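Lab notebook, design round three. We kept the backbone fixed and only want residue identities now. Task for the bench partner: fill in a sequence for the structure below.
Input structure tokens:
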């Protein structure tokens, strides 16, 4: 049986007060719409239709999923009108699932249950009881003739808050905005929608009364948690959902044995894979894909993106790692930070030490190499056990092109040196402090490239004139 999915994402999102279309605002590093698409993509649908309207160009450029097409809704005349635009893209038979682009945290399990309840025959609504149902469409149950708005009994309609009587407004069961309908019937109902209501809109929710009139059963299912059906309309709601999502992720990690100093001060915007006995202190942000090996410790206030950190490494507070496309790799037992910066292509071997205010970019450091203070290593290959002195810099950029620096094993680079690339320092060499090295240094020798020190005897300091 064919499964079609329609995701409504054409609305304006006025209350976000933002130039960015609402569905492109990010939750845990991914747009709201991308969250919904990810869930939709996992359902194995035969087709996914996304309604775009406000900011359509931006929305269409920003998201992607297999089997997906965009259908523009211009102007936006209501949720029923939105789904009408998708009709030509739907199969003739089967089930159509309707999702909201601004309700990001619905789970596959909940959607599966809804599709099962529909079974290509019944109209299935995802509903939930809310303490404060104001603003939502209410599920009206009971005798349609009496329209007595009592809870319990068969569903005979959804009434929008703005159109509801005081008795209907006292109903706490609300429509979440998610439904699964028999596709052929849905097409028929959509064609018959009218906009004679308080908002002058074509309400998708009016199909419920049409189903009842045709004798089609209307059934309801409920999500496991209200978090799944909460929509984002304002920055406050976005932040609220972000915290709920982060809490869920933090709990899953802790269940797996990860020790978070404070789950309320933890942010994962992507995927975090952890070994045993991983400790993460407060205020850390993980982005993209990050792997932490057994016994890794992450100090407070670190931001880590696209990195692999091997067993036993310690990342001290305020370290920033951004692997971007090339990745960052930290070897087993390495010590990084505090205040270190690892950029794309930083590849640290086992037991490497990178200290405060050291920046490493597109460089490989072999086992046991150390750069402990205030230094820059860019486009450099560093051998085992090298000691790279405080304040030393690789001048890798000549203003037009980047060049490599090669530092052999057991080299000692003194403090405050400049290594002007391309240049090679032979194994076991020593570079004297303060040297500017622009020619290769032979292995095992001391090279010094700085002005000789002079001392003047009998020199007197100037004195201030009266
Ligand atoms: C809708 C439901 C209401 C339900 C609530 C749940 C209707 C008539 N009402 O109300 O019963 O309780 O959702 O959140 O369906 N959209 C379009 N095109 C349009 C209008 C809306 O694509 O012309 C999209 C919006 O971008 C949004 C979704 O549809 O993603 C829902 O629209 P919204 O205006 O938020 O619906 P509500 O009035 O809140
Ligand atoms: Ca509306």
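Proposed sequence:
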């Amino acid at each position: 049986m064919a499964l079609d999915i329609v995701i409504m994402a054409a609305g304006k999102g006025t209350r976000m007060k933002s130039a960015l279309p609402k569905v492109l605002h990010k939750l845990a590093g991914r747009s709201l719409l991308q969250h919904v698409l990810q869930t939709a993509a996992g359902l194995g649908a035969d087709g996914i239709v996304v309604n775009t309207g406000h900011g359509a160009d931006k929305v269409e450029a920003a998201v992607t999923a297999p089997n997906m097409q965009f259908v523009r809704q211009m102007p936006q005349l209501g949720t029923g009108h939105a789904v009408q635009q998708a009709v030509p893209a739907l199969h003739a038979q089967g089930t159509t699932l309707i999702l909201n682009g601004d309700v990001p945290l619905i789970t596959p399990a909940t959607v599966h249950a809804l599709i099962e309840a529909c079974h290509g025959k019944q109209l299935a609504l995802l509903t939930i009881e809310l303490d404060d149902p104001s603003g939502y469409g209410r599920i009206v149950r009971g005798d349609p003739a009496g329209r007595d708005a009592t809870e319990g009994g068969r569903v005979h309609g959804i009434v929008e808050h703005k159109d509801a009587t005081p008795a209907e407004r006292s109903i706490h069961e609300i429509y979440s905005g998610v439904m699964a309908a028999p596709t052929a019937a849905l097409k028929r109902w959509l064609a018959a929608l009218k906009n004679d209501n308080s908002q002058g809109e074509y309400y998708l929710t009016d199909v419920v009364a049409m189903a009842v009139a045709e004798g089609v059963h209307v059934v309801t299912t409920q999500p496991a948690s209200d978090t799944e059906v909460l929509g984002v309309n304002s920055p406050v709601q976005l932040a609220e959902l972000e915290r709920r999502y982060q809490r869920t992720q933090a709990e899953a990690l802790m269940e797996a044995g990860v020790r978070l100093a404070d789950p309320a001060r933890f942010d994962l915007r992507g995927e975090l894979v952890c070994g045993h006995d991983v400790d993460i202190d407060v205020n850390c942000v993980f982005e993209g894909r990050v792997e932490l090996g057994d016994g890794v410790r992450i100090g407070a206030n670190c931001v880590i993106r696209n990195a692999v950190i091997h067993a036993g490494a310690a990342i001290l507070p305020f370290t920033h790692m951004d692997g971007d496309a090339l990745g960052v790799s930290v070897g087993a037992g390495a010590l990084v930070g505090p205040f270190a910066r690892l950029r794309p292509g930083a590849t640290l071997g086992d037991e490497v030490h990178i200290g405060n205010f050291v920046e490493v970019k597109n460089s490989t450091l072999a086992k046991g190499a150390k750069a402990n203070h205030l230094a820059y290593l860019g486009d450099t290959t560093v051998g085992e056990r090298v000691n790279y002195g405080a304040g030393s810099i690789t001048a890798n950029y000549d203003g037009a092109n980047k060049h490599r620096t090669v530092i052999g094993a057991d080299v000692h680079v003194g403090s405050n040196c400049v290594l002007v690339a391309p240049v090679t320092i032979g194994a076991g060499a020593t570079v004297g402090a303060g040297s500017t090295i622009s020619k290769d240094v032979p292995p095992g020798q001391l090279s010094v490239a700085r002005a000789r020190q002079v001392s003047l005897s009998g020199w007197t300091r100037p004195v201030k004139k009266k």
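Keep this in mind before ordering anything: The pocket of uridine-diphosphate-N-acetylglucosamine (ligand 1) is lined by residues 8-11, 51, 53, 73, 76-79, 81-82, 100-102, 136-137, 158, 160, 174-177, 203-205, 231 (CB under 6 Å).
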